[in-house]
Amino acid sequence: MVxxxxxxxxxxxxxxxxxxxxxxxxxxxxxxxxxxRNKLSVPAEKKALPAAPQQRPEVxxxxxxxxxxxxxxxxxxxxxxxxxxAAANLDDLRERLSRFNGCGLKATATQLVFGDGNPSAExxxxxxxxxxxxxxxxxxFVGRAGQLLDKMLAAIGxxxxxxxxxxxxxxxxxxxxxxxxxxxxxxxxxxxxxxELVDPKILVCLGAAAAQTLLGCKDGIMRMRGRWFTYMAGExxxxxxxMLHPAYLLRQPxxxxxxxxxxxxxxxxxxxxxxxxxxxxxTNEG
Length: 286
Hints:
The chain has a domain at 112-272: 3-Layer(aba) Sandwich (Uracil-DNA Glycosylase, subunit E). 44% of the residues lie in helices and 10% in strands. It is built from 13 helices and six strands. Strands 1-3-2-4-6-5 form a six-stranded mixed β-sheet. α4 packs parallel to α9. It starts with a helix and ends in a 14-residue tail after the last helix.
């Protein structure tokens, strides 16, 4: 049987996938065997020379010289922390994050999804990662889950002009898969700095992934929801609560009653802290 060029290429791609090849590390191919032979053929006197001081891999806010996947996690997280900590404000943080190449998701996403809402808000919502709609528009929570979140906010007298919304991971994972621990670890210093710069009075973690990452609790979301936690933004404690993710509620609408209980807890805390003076969030007791 004679195969067409397209069929041969398809077979080759399938073979690559079976061998575990899922990305190109450079624009041009390299003969690694030839490179190895060249290294072995270096004269002995050159081998004996003292090694030059090793330079730290370039990761932070400038283009990588090598794939992030080839660098130790500690290096990526340390440089992410340095990059994020130096941000003076949200615009600066966004610019630094847009130039950060330590997370491989940046290469597969359409664009950075940084944040939305009021940057001076006293309530901040944080989810896990953007979806397809967010990836296209560059704004968090704009798809079906985002529309449900807007309705949830409206139920207690809030809207996006009164809150700030972001995600732990600002780039969409391919196929909406769960971010890997390495990807989350690379992005964590940035969302922590984002929370510090917004400086909210209340932090709302949407879903188990965001809650476990930010609050350091390994319980499932059903055990975490309905409870108040303390999130430390630097040295400042922030009241924090975990809630069911709107995307989960779309799949399990029967649990919207639990979300309503949590929203009422949130509204009560808003009133206790005297946020939105003269315009407190309200619950509909009916």
